[in-house]
Amino acid sequence: MDEAKVHVIQEWEEPIKVTELRSFLGLVNYYRQFISGYSAKAAPLTELLKKNKPWIWTEHCQKEFEGLRAAVTEEIVLALPDFAKTFERSESTGHTPFELATGQQPQTPHSLPAAFEGKSLGAYHMAKGWEKELDTAKSYLDKAAKKMKKCADRKRHPADNRVGNMVMVKFNPRQFKALWGMHQNQIRKYEGPFKIVSKIGKISYKLDMPSYLKIYHVFHASILKPYHEDKDDPRRGQSSQAPITIIASHDREIEAIMDYHARRKQGQKATAMFLIHWKWQSREEATWEQYEDLWQFKDKI
């Protein structure tokens, strides 16, 4: 423990009320298993914590308070334990059983000296057997890890993604509220294409995402797939379904766009609104629609 903290404990003044005594006992109780006869020493002090007990600080309480304060600051109590060692030492020999058997206390449970220096050859061989079994277990774990990697690599392919290429992204449906409750067979496996803007780190890429996709635009290479455009028919790769976050769709056609404006909300970006005159309807029945909801008519906007 820091010497400054030890000094604070040594200078701890005697409590004059219950709250101060409770604070002191809370500190001492943390080290109770290292203080011999803790319960008997703390008994007079804990009596003062009882309900409706009058506060009477006697000489006996002062003596036990000073004794506990001194016991907490002893080096044996404040030393940090090394859990790799055996703590129980014999009072007659001053050594642990492992030190008497092997001649040395190991720093870790499975580290032993190369040569035998102790008195019990059987104990040394038993500990060496433990070390051998540990090495065997490690070798089997390494073998299993290599086998798992070999099976996983069968479905992997080297990614050759470069800045400027178009890629498809495999989104997690749980990231979009619009997809909650939908069956997984009704959700497209990949969305896109999106353009690679830059490379982040070794295996992540930043993509140029549309504004309606409110999602972080850096993705791992494992969920990206190269997009191959059909040069003879570029529209072949375009989906007729609504974008992943949009659930609105229209079964009518646009006759004309009568007006438009930007609608702003506090703390949000402006949303483009269009006054749509629908085909086979009068101009009085025109409705205001958001730009994102008119995804079917992007060629007319």
TrEMBL record:
SUPFAM superfamilies: Chromo domain-like (SSF54160), DNA/RNA polymerases (SSF56672). This is Mitochondrial protein. It comes from the Eukaryota. Signal peptide: none annotated. It comes from Nicotiana attenuata. Gene3D superfamilies: 2.40.50.40, 3.30.70.270. Residues 252-301 form the Chromo domain.
